[in-house]
Amino acid sequence: MRFVDRIIDTDLLYVMFTSGSTGMPKGVAVTHRSVVDYIDWVVEQFDITEKDSIGNQAPFYFDNSILDIYSSVKTGAELHIISEELFHQIPQLLQYLADNRISTIFWVPSALSQVAWSKDFETVDLTKTLKRVLFCGEVMHNKNLNLWRYRLPNVQYANLYGPTEITDACTYYIVNRPFSDDEPLPIGRPMRNTEILVLDDQDKLVIEPDIVGELCVRGTCLAAGYYNDPERTAQSFIQNPLQKAYEEKIYRTGDLVKYNEYHELIYLSRKDFQIKHLGHRIELGEIETAASTLDGVAACCCLYNPVYDFIVLFLEGKSYTSSEINKRLSMLLPRYMLPSLVICLDSMPLNANGKIDRVKLREKYIN
Ligand code: AMP
């Protein structure tokens, strides 16, 4: 119950439940202040105005929708809520973008990849209307992005990264140079008024390239915590280990990253996707990056069964046998990283947010 009749910027704007792609959903409590700070930056960085039309993919219970909703509220840009069914009917989806003169989309990479692989991508002309393609929520493989860049070279592409706990996104990379299909796309640099701390196992700051650490975040973007859950809040929102003079929280994302030679952040995988297999430490994300480059592969996902020490690779697109895949992958990966089993699917299961549904794959094929 509220005891005052006005809202101040440290009050909650929403409580949003995380996708649960990595465990039990948690109610993330986000304040007005965090959203105002984020949207001010989005509008300025991408130059969104009342002339723009935003084509929304993220359901409103998924935090990518925050960018869509509030940048249109702030600027007066049109917001078009695209029906979920259209994401299964690519020709109609493309026609919708053209008919409504959509200038800006902020979608999950899985949705963009489905368009990239559709033969209908060629048939609708978006060159005069689509200006920005932003994405966030999972890894965007360059092989799929390159199909977009080839088809629509004058569009601005940006890779945003962040979990729900830091108000949608905290780093960004504006795609500004060519990438080969097998290179990782950077997640870039922190957004304005945000600091990223890459911390090693001893909580020491990593600044050199190629050293793996956990991405931690400091700034106004941090959520107020998990609603009604002080215990889990205390586990992830912790005192900044680099300064002990006053109370200051950082959020531990559980994501492993490293810097490249340009001091851009490169996403590797979630900490819990890092496995020990045949005595080697492996990031499953690296196997996915390699598999994504193979001919005819539209989507891929790698899971691990610790009981049987078993790596399973799921592929969508061309049908391969395990031995064919391993022959090709052995040119890209060391032997110990080759999957124990390859399962080819007609289409990957997607969760309610449109991301690859790892929980469903695990339940159906691994457990
Ligand atoms: P959620 O809180 O459900 O939006 O999931 C957030 C998680 O999605 C992050 O912790 C990352 O593991 C992953 N993620 C978000 N954006 C990206 C990105 N641009 N590249 C790779 N992974 C991402």
Describe the structure in brief.
With 367 residues, the protein is α/β, with parallel strands linked by helices.
Unreliable stretches (pLDDT < 50, length at least 5) are none
Spatial arrangement of strands, main beta sheet: 4-3-5-6-7-8-9
Shape: globular
CATH topology annotation of the largest domain: Rossmann fold
Ligand inventory reads: adenosine monophosphate
User: How many beta-strand elements?
Assistant: 20
Q: Structural class of the secondary elements?
A: alpha/beta
Report the CATH architecture of the largest domain.
3-Layer(aba) Sandwich
Q: Tell me the strand percentage band.
A: 25-35%
Number of helices: 9
Q: What is the CATH class designation of the largest domain?
A: Alpha Beta
Largest sheet: 7 strands, mixed
